[in-house]
């Protein structure tokens, strides 16, 4: 029963911060909507990512507390706390400056490059910290007896590789040139 709490930790962290957070970032490049709608999608997907991330971390703590394991002893957990705090701060700043009440034109213009830079930095930390989590989990499993070249070990390592590839494509998409605004008109080919 207690283990169930731990198992939801990687699932929520991956679905939340890695996948939803990644979709939020690519929304500006991938969606055929006008800018204001893309901004709303960006904001909402990041909010879902943040909430799932907070629940996922709560589950890891709950598991540790109920099984008498110490908290916050690993590099993964320290970076994890840093990541969730930065994600929350980035969301609040983004909301206040770009959405409501919204900064002046000058402030928005000056903030965008910093927002993009910090956003990418936080997302890189998210993906890297997931890899650390997989590494840690597999090390625990191997020291409790699973085979080093067994199918569970491959599953954990390949899931980590898939997460890293996904994150790489999110960043490449964010770095790519924005498509021209779609005017929703058909044209003769
Ligand atoms: C970016 C996403 C992630 C964040 C922010 C994160 C954060 C955290 C935090 C804060 C803890 C500490 C809980 C405590 O001390 O009670 C923790 C524990 C743990 N996490 Fe993650 N995690 C993430 C993804 C993952 C993934 C994908 C795995 C893969 C299995 C994982 C495996 C673990 C393990 C094994 C522990 C317990 C050992 C420890 O405290 O280091 N995590 N995580
Ligand atoms: C933790 C939450 C957030 C992260 C990690 C994040 C990350 C990013 C990233 C990486 C980009 C660059 C996307 C690209 O150029 O393709 C971006 C752009 C942007 N974000 Fe966020 N963001 C977050 C929250 C928010 C919030 C809450 C708002 C409020 C509306 C917001 C508004 C914007 C705006 C206006 C842009 C500029 C789009 C443009 O015109 O190029 N962000 N964000």
TrEMBL record:
Cofactors, names only: heme b
Keywords for the protein's UniProt record, in alphabetical order: Electron transport, Heme, Iron, Membrane, Metal-binding, Transmembrane, Transmembrane helix, Transport
UniProt-listed InterPro entries: CYB561/CYBRD1-like, Cyt_b561/ferric_Rdtase_TM
Membrane topology of this protein: Multi-pass membrane protein
An annotated GO cellular component: membrane
Top-level taxon of the source organism: Eukaryota
Gene3D superfamilies, sorted: 1.20.120.1770
EC annotation from Swiss-Prot or TrEMBL: 7.2.1.3
Keyword Iron: yes
Ranges where the Cytochrome b561 domain occurs: 1-175
Name the UniProt record assigns to this protein: ascorbate ferrireductase (transmembrane)
Entry-linked SMART domains: B561 (SM00665)
């Amino acid at each position: 029963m207690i283990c169930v709490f731990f198992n939801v930790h990687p699932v929520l962290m991956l679905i939340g911060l890695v996948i939803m957070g990644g979709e939020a970032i690519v929304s500006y490049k991938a969606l055929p909507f006008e800018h204001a709608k893309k901004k709303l999608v960006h904001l909402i997907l990041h909010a879902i990512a943040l909430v799932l991330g907070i629940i996922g971390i709560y589950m890891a703590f709950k598991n540790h507390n109920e099984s008498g394991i110490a908290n916050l002893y690993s590099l993964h957990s320290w970076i994890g706390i840093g990541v969730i705090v930065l994600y929350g701060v980035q969301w609040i700043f983004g909301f206040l400056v770009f959405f409501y009440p919204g900064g002046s034109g000058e402030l928005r213009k000056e903030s965008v490059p910093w927002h993009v830079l910090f956003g990418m930095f936080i997302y890189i930390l998210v993906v890297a910290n997931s890899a650390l989590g997989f590494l840690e989990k597999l090390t625990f499993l191997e020291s409790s007896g699973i085979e080093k070249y067994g199918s569970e070990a491959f599953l954990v390592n390949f899931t980590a590789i898939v997460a890293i590839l996904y994150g790489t494509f999110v960043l490449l998409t964010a770095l790519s040139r924005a498509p021209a605004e779609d005017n929703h008109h058909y044209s003769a080919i």
